[in-house]
Design goal:
Chain A has 110 residues and is mostly beta strands. In chain A, 0% of the residues lie in helices and 56% in strands. Chain A has a single domain (4-8, 20-101), classed as Immunoglobulins (Immunoglobulin-like), CATH 2.60.40. Classes of the chains: A mainly beta (110), B mainly beta (109). Chains A and B meet through strand 5, strand 9 and strand 10 of A and strand 5 and strand 10 of B.
């Protein structure tokens, strides 16, 4: 069974700092999604990456998919308190099944 | 646009009591629907998914069950709640890209 491992589990930084969080698997991803979840709310999709080596940017967020499609990273530049939340990676497998990582809980202090 | 409603928003139930959580969707037809549970500060655990009326796939053996009586309605139930059933229950629709509802916070005492 493929597991999605996210690291670090917790990250606390000051406003303005840069950070990177990771999502890794023992097997190849067909595609990978990144979500952000704020306390008491459902996750919201940020991006989907499909092609090995792919890089996508969403304002100050940069998502990278590993060449071998077994890992992905999310880099945030000049983090802001509004970036605080739980960042989850996820994969769809067997057409309809979904598997999520445990997430990285980010806190950005003003 | 798609909208997911979950009811109730919060619930406190004693151990051994029954449970019924409702999810209804708008703005789409014949969606794939999902139930997830999230323990405090943790990731999402897929409980059930449904590709159509009356079609339920279970991911984790447990004392919960799901039903889909209508195309846009997905219900999560239990006959007897356990303490370990506490958590944040999320309904979602979609396929590879999931769209989530606002969730139900369940506390079992």
């Amino acid at each position: 069974t493929q597991l999605l491992e996210q690291s670090p589990q917790f990250l606390s930084i000051q406003e303005g700092e840069n950070l990177t969080v990771y999502c890794n698997s023992s097997s190849v991803f067909s595609s990978l999604q990144w979500y952000r979840q704020e306390p008491g709310e459902g996750p919201v999709l940020l991006v989907t990456v499909v092609t090995g080596g792919e890089v996508k940017k969403l304002k100050r967020l940069t998502f990278q998919f590993g060449d071998a499609r077994k890992d992905s990273s999310l880099h945030i530049t000049a983090a802001q308190p509004g970036d605080t939340g739980l960042y989850l990676c996820a994969e769809a497998y067997n057409n309809n099944d979904m598997r999520f990582g445990a997430g990285t809980r980010l806190t950005v202090k003003p | 646009s798609q909208t997911i409603h979950q009811w109730p928003a919060t619930l406190v139930q004693p151990v051994g009591s029954p449970l019924s959580l409702e999810c209804t969707v708008e703005g789409t037809s014949n969606p794939n629907l999902y139930w997830y549970r999230q323990a405090a500060g943790r990731g999402l655990q897929l409980l059930f998914y449904s590709v159509g009326i009356g079609q339920i796939s279970s991911e984790v053996p447990q004392n919960l069950s799901a039903s889909r009586p209508q195309d846009r309605q997905f219900i999560l139930s239990s006959k007897k709640l356990l303490l370990s059933d506490s958590g944040f229950y999320l309904c979602a629709l979609g396929g590879k890209e999931q769209f989530f509802g606002p969730g139900t916070r369940l506390t079992v005492l």
